[in-house]
Amino acid sequence: MNFLAVAERFAAQHFPEASVVVLAGSTARGTRTSTSDIDLLILGETLFADGRTSLAATYRFEGEVFEVFAYTEEGFSTWANRGFEQYRPVIVQMLLDGVTVRGAAERERYKDVWSPKYEAGPSLEPSEAAFRRYVITDLLDDYSDVTDPVERHVIATLLYERTAELVLLTNSRWIGTGKYLPRRLAEFDPDRAAALAAHLVSGDHDLFAEQVKIELDRAGGRVQEGFQR
């Protein structure tokens, strides 16, 4: 299937005023699965008749599910900056990494504005870094004592997420949610990503805890007594 053509037909029907249409996600990367949807970033100053500046919505078109993120320039700025604040600039990554369907020149203008901030990576304040280490310290202590298998599983998952985020953020790398978090970690350091994941997947709780401790020490070590938040 020619997904660029399908995306253009979708935009022509639902967002005819769009000045920029970018195909993103697994469809753009060529890694689609049987359940993949089509992610589209859509930009334009006259997209909305009701005065709104942004829209995130799901459509079905020509048998495909479309996940649409549509913005005026003001709306894009608001949500892009919110993503940076949360260390997950998803729509900026769509802008930078996707495939142009419409509006190549206008897309380049947006990229010139947002690429420097994205490429700089996140800067973690010392107070937040300490808080994140405190959370991992507390989870590790809970993990060492837990006996209920469901509780152990939940804590292990939280430990993985918090540790992976700490590794990325202390190395000026953006984080992700869900499946994108281990992908971001593997992109940064495949060996460290594999080491953290291996014992989580195998269920070797002691070795998983040891790997978390290694990463915690790399980030500055345990935080507990005297910590104020």
From TrEMBL:
Entry keyword Transferase: yes
Enzyme class: transferase
Descriptive protein name: Nucleotidyltransferase domain-containing protein
InterPro entries: NT_sf, Polymerase_NTP_transf_dom
Coiled coil (residue ranges): none
One GO MF term attached to the UniProt entry: nucleotidyltransferase activity
Organism: Microbacterium bandirmense
CDD domains tied to this protein: NT_KNTase_like
The protein's Enzyme Commission number: 2.7.7.-
Domain Polymerase nucleotidyl transferase: 14-49
Nucleotidyltransferase among keywords: yes
Alphabetical keyword list: Nucleotidyltransferase, Transferase
